């Protein structure tokens, strides 16, 4: 894996959870023989929040992975939802974006996963890169476009525990990025054949809930050809019951919210569950 060095610049920048959603406006890449440099502009508001969260992480370093995800993800509640945060395409240079002023569902996961592993600004930037891109290569074709990439690409970020949570899984073969008419969602990106396990919503009950842990990553399964999920969030057990903590695009929300878990998933085809590696 290539090492990545970062130069953080403070400046103002302007910045739907579908495949490829997630980068802002911010980065230039210069490759040398041994490493890749990412020149990143981070707006003052994002930098201030980053420093606060790094301090919070430091003060709570002894808590479990799930508790840390709860702590850090909770700090983004009420953050406005913004679609299509990522920038880049096959013929458009990929830009590394770090911007806390607005989140879509995938960038929300990216930032929390990177934050829980970071003790400094520089380490956070590197962890965003390693979380978002295969082998840390800031390139559209190396972006982890699909939720299940976190458990199926090299240097896995999480384990797919769906089949361990329920005996009532359904397994389907998906050709990710391939539409039913044979066209691709993301031109230039290869089609990937992948076996997907999901728990249909009618089988999500108290026993399933008892096997979930705070901090688990939840993907809302879709029956659409070429996609694994249409939305993602965190499973969080609160004093008032389980919630899906998510960057919601729904008109009544349009921000990061805690949605009652059972009510939310009951209206979906089902869920895929990933658990963060320690």
From TrEMBL:
PROSITE patterns listed in its UniProt record: PROKAR_LIPOPROTEIN
Domain of life: Bacteria
UniProt-listed SUPFAM superfamilies: Cysteine proteinases
Family matches, as InterPro entries: AmiA-like, Papain-like_cys_pep_sf
The protein's name in its UniProt record: Lipoprotein
Species, as recorded: Solimicrobium silvestre
């Amino acid at each position: 894996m290539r090492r990545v060095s970062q130069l953080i610049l403070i400046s103002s920048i302007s910045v739907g959870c579908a495949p490829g959603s997630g980068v802002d406006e911010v980065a230039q890449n210069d490759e040398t023989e041994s490493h890749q440099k990412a020149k990143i502009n981070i707006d003052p508001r994002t930098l201030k929040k980053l420093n606060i969260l790094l301090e919070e992480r430091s003060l709570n370093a002894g808590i479990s992975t799930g508790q840390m995800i709860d702590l850090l993800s909770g700090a983004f509640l009420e953050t406005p939802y913004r679609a299509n945060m990522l920038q880049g395409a096959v013929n458009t240079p990929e830009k590394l974006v770090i911007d806390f002023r607005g989140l879509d569902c995938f960038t929300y996961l990216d930032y929390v996963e990177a934050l829980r592993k970071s003790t400094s600004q520089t380490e956070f930037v590197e962890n965003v890169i390693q979380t978002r891109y295969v082998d840390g290569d800031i390139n559209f074709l190396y972006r982890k476009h699909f939720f299940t990439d976190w458990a199926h690409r090299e240097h896995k970020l999480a384990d797919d525990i769906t089949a361990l949570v329920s005996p009532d899984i359904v397994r389907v073969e998906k050709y990710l990025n391939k539409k039913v008419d044979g066209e691709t969602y993301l031109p230039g990106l290869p089609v990937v054949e992948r076996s997907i396990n999901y728990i249909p919503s009618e089988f999500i009950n108290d026993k399933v809930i008892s096997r979930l842990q705070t901090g688990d990553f939840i993907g809302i399964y879709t029956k659409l050809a070429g996609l694994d999920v249409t939305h993602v969030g965190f499973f969080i057990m609160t004093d008032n019951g389980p919630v899906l903590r998510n960057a919601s695009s729904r008109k009544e929300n349009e921000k990061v919210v805690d949605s009652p878990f059972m009510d939310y998933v009951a209206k979906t085809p089902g869920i895929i569950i990933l658990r963060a590696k320690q």
